[in-house]
Amino acid sequence: MELTGQKISYPFFTFLVKEIFRGKSLARSLLNYNLKNIVLKGEVLDLGSKSNKASYNRFLQKDVECNITFTDWHESGDSILKLNLEEKFSIEDSIYDFITCFNTLEHIYNFKNAVSESCRILKSGGIFIGQTPFLVNYHADPNDYFRYTHQAIEKIFAEAGFVCERMIYLGFGPLSASFAMKYHVCPKFLRPIFVIGSILLDNIIMKYKKSQRLRYPLGYLYIMKKR
Fold first, then answer.
1. How far apart are CA 101 and CA 78, in angstroms?
2. DSSP 13-27
3. Origin, by domain of life (predicted)?
């Protein structure tokens, strides 16, 4: 598995500034930026978001025949399936083409159940698109249990029956990672300056410290395919 990083460019920084002024964190902005080229098709199950209001839905591309079912632990309704991710899913085998799961697995104590059940309900060749944080603050919803390295993610999904097609390192280096931890105490109008400045400095540092390039992940975005 090749772990790819985020390339910086003028369009990237323009996107980043817009998302920051929308109130999005650096980690969330990186996730959203990398979802722009992903196209969902067929039957899709979103694990952990009970509606399309999450910001990533603004960027994921949808095929004309795409039908998304959202999930929630506490309630059900139109296009919302009540689902406890820590128990066997009340869903038939092999019926979904895609599963999305962003900023959710760290809140699931029995995460192996969520991953193995996802594999079971995906069609052969179905795709799981996930993201989990790493260097981020504690954020209970209602609990916050785990942080996963890229090696752990690959192994967890391989044991459940997936092959890793792609994994993206969401981060740049120690300075931007450090600022990301203090992000919400910084005045909103100053955030773009500190974020862009720290990213540019990290880019310079990593040119001379290439061996440390992957040591400061804010999180990982990954695409897994059912065997």
1. 19
2. HHHHHHHHHTT--HH
3. Bacteria
pTM for the structure as a whole: 0.94
Query: What CA–CA distances, in Å, run from 32 to 9, 119, 136, 158?
Result: 16, 24, 16, 25
Go through the domains of the chain in sequence order and give each one's CATH number.
Answer: 3-226 (3.40.50.150)
HSE at residue 36, side-chain half, CA atoms within 13 A, is 8
Query: Shortest CA distance to 182 belongs to which of 218, 132, 137, 134?
Result: 137
Condensed to tens digits (0 to 9), the pLDDT of residues 156-173 reads: 999 999 999 999 999 999
Burial of 75 (0-12, 13-18, 19+ CB in 10 A): exposed
**Rounded CA gap, 55 and 35, in Å?**
11
Q: What is the pLDDT of residues 176-211, one digit of tens each?
A: 999 999 988 999 999 999 999 999 999 999 999 988
Q: Which two tokens stand for residue 71?
A: 């999930």
- Cα–Cα distances (Å) from 46 to 32, 179, 188, in that order, read 16, 30, 30
The residues facing 221 across adjacent strands are 131, 168
